[in-house]
Amino acid sequence: xxxxxxxxxxxxxxxxxxxxxxxxxxxxxxxxxxxxxxxxxxxxxxxxxxxxxxxxxxxxxxxxxxxxxxxxxxxxxxxxxxxxxxxxxxxxxxxxxxxxxxxxxxxxxxxxxxxxxxxxxxxxxxxxxxxxxxxxxxxxxxxxxxxxxxxxxxxxxxxxxxxxxxxxxxxxxxxxxxxxxx
Length: 182
Description:
Layout (H helix, E strand, L loop, with lengths): L2 E5 L3 H7 L5 E3 L2 E3 L5 E6 H13 L3 H6 L4 H4 L7 H11 L24 H9 L2 H11 L2 H11 L2 H22 L10
Antiparallel strand pairs: 1-4, 2-3
Helix pairs in contact: 2-5
């Protein structure tokens, strides 16, 4: 089991507060001595972050006793702690479940058909005009020329052309079905 160093006040919050670095350990900068809980088990580390997300500091206080001014800087209810907890837990803590309805990204079961969405978006006149202008830029033309020179693109283009040729030939000779014309 590997041990972790847990920042009591998360690094993102220290940066937001503008706290300056005060020392380095093994080339890693720390913001203030009172902010580090050393040699924490991964599961405990995940549980502490989950507690931050849920607004519960009990797991943290079981393992250390930081000064009140440090506790006051801990952001409670921040989604970044939930994601940290999920990553650290590696699926081993049952209560840390961010799938389905428990996800902060849950939108009441609404799903989107992305292909239909992109097709509809492509029909907007402003979008068409934007794409037309973009495709005329020298940057896009250079990118497209470079992309078309790759072996992968050439193989894909050849496969597509061969399939299209075979389909057209079959239609001319009266083979196949009428599904394409219905």
